Structure formats: C-alpha cells, structure tokens
C-alpha cells in the first residue's frame, strides 16, 4: 500500500514513523513534510492546503490511502475533493470537520446530543459579552474564539477584568482575524484534563489508548495556553470505567447526532475531557489526531497502522482485529523556541539530534524544523517532540529528558514536569 501523509508537524512525523513500520505499507510520502519525515519517508514539496496539487499527486502516484494530519485542510474540505476523485482518504468531510472548525457549532451540537459540557453563551458584540460577564456571579470563565486559532484561541480567565480584556482583544481588536468574529463564553470547569482519541468510520467507534496533554506553557500548569508542551500515555486518570462512560455519554451520542445532521463522521475524533467531581465534561472536540498526544500514543501502537487507517476510511472498522499496544508507557516532551507561544525567532541551528535519536527507546519527532545549508534549524514555535518509552512512567520520563539534554539551540526550552501528575498519582 502506498500512503500519502498531509502535513509537516510532529503529529505527521509520528504518523509517518508508524506507517513506515507497518507491514501493509510499501511506500510513505509526506507533503510537505519536514527534515524528520524526510529521513523516515519521501517528502513531497506540496503545501497541505494545496488540495488540487495533492489530488493530482495522489492520482499520478497511485496513492492507496491519504492521511490528513492538520485541521485546516480538513476544515477547508480536502476530504470532499479526494472523494470526488475516488481516492481513499482518512479524515472527515468539510461539513463534519465543522465540529472543530467552529466552537459555536460544537457546543450547539453537544447540546442537541445531550453531551455533558459546560454551560455557554455565544457573542459577536463586545458590549453584550462584557455585560454578560458583569452579570455573572462567578469571577472565572473561559473565552474561546469561534474559529481556528492554532491552539491559542482559548483563554481561561481568572477574573472578570481579565475576561473583559480578552473579549476586547478578540471581538474589537480582531486578535485572531475572522476566527474571533464570534466568541463562546463558558463556565470554567474544575478538574483534571485528559484526551480520548477514537477512530470512527461513520458508525463503529474504536477508542485508542488514553493520553494527557499539557496545554499551559510552564511547569505546574502555569502561563499562557499553547498548542501543547508535552504528553504521556496512558493517562492513569482515564480508567477503563471512565473510557466506557465517555464512549457511552460522549462519543456515541455525538456520532449519531452528526449522522442525523447529514454530517457523518469518519476519521479521528478527539475529545478533550475535563474529569470533574460530577463526571466527565467535554471541553472541545478535534477532528484529527492531537498534537503532541499522537506522538505519545502512536509510540506504543503495535498494530499495523496502515491497515487500521484504511479500515476506518473504508467503513470496515467492525472487521478489524482488536488493536495491540505496547504495555510500556510513553512520555513526549516538546522543546520550544524562545518566546513561544508569543513571537519567536527562527533559523537557530539545532545540535545533538543524532545523539538523542541514538538513545534506546527514544524517537525525536520533528515539528517546527527545516534544513538550511547543511544544518537542521528551528522553523516554528514548537520545534521537537522528544518521545520515549520505559518500563514505567518515571523511566519513560527519564529516557525522554536524557534525550532532551542532548539537544541544544540558542533559546531552547521545555517544561520539566511532563508526566509528574501521573507519577504522583501512582506513588499515592
């Protein structure tokens, strides 16, 4: 099977890495890819949003399956164009991808489906939104840009004053352009976050191993929100009982509601869950593999990923053998550029990649890198996802941070506490 992966980040590198190891896969291409995917596969210099050229490439090169990594091509309708050309593709259609493309749509369809989530209001007028904030008894709230904002459009506000400022930035100053023409203001949920990813072929749902992301920039879950500073799998907070509840109360109702709405869902459905004292509540849905959860989860997959994704795209997940997983846990530590998630510089030469990649049970996934001359240099905010497995979480963490210590560039930084929450739980 010849497979094309669309995208250029750490998630796509993890997909490429596992597909390359799949017995059913003979050739892997990545468009546009990065220096890491260029080692594990063949890079194709077509941008992820250039649908016409990607379709042309898939036809010309007899691609058996295309796997879309990032959300923007999905929301723009890449799957619809591939299907029009009778090409197999893993991911939701444009109408189904609105589940991630619009926070307003996601909240409204959750309400219709009876999916547990925080109470919310939608605004396009700043004065009305601020008036609502002033009337609330709770100082805290969450303000979300309606559209896609590269993982930065969600702000957990600790006070009404902070919420007012965020609302002005989004609705008046158009901080995220058209993505913040509308905002969602919702109650702030208290608990612990977990990520549950599931493969969905329109009717059958196959949950993947659990993971926990770290959205805040700094240790102790402090600082601004980011696209994700690290992850580990499995997440001890996601017990088999909790997974069953999420499947029954969240995934099944939303998949059925999407079908009723004429938006049948195929692809990877990612539920960001807050585990509260009242039970699990949905924070958000994504319509693709999470980043960096994918790096941690796929590092543990032993099944043939090519066959798994093809079954999902073909609507035959019910015929698939149960997925096989490495019982050892994994930890992914994101190394970021100085200044991220704000403005950051690019083009810093990266040292120590070979040394880190040569360590046992370690894989360095490239996220924001490029080649300049003979050097791999930084080219994004989140630069690398250093991922490792171990016999237990402390050992997986140790392996990951040993690899991190090998890698250097001017301004490199990372959180030092990835997986500590889970380790503390296991000690208790």
UniProtKB/TrEMBL annotation:
Pfam families (alphabetical)? GARS_A, GARS_C, GARS_N
- Indicate the enzyme's highest-level EC class: ligase
Q: Which GO terms describe its molecular function?
A: ATP binding; metal ion binding; phosphoribosylamine-glycine ligase activity
Looking up InterPro entries in the UniProt record yields: ATP-grasp, ATP_grasp_subdomain_1, PreATP-grasp_dom_sf, PRibGlycinamid_synth_ATP-grasp, PRibGlycinamide_synth, PRibGlycinamide_synth_C-dom, PRibGlycinamide_synth_C_sf, PRibGlycinamide_synth_CS
Q: Which reaction does it catalyse?
A: 5-phospho-beta-D-ribosylamine + glycine + ATP = N(1)-(5-phospho-beta-D-ribosyl)glycinamide + ADP + phosphate + H(+)
* UniProt entry keywords in alphabetical sequence: ATP-binding, Ligase, Manganese, Metal-binding, Nucleotide-binding, Purine biosynthesis
The biological processes this protein is annotated with in GO are: 'de novo' IMP biosynthetic process; purine nucleobase biosynthetic process
Give cofactor(s), names only. Answer: Mg(2+); Mn(2+)
Name the family the entry cites.
Answer: Belongs to the GARS family.
- Protein name as it appears in the record: Phosphoribosylamine--glycine ligase
Q: What is the taxonomic lineage of the source species?
A: Bacteria, Pseudomonadati, Planctomycetota, Planctomycetia, Planctomycetales
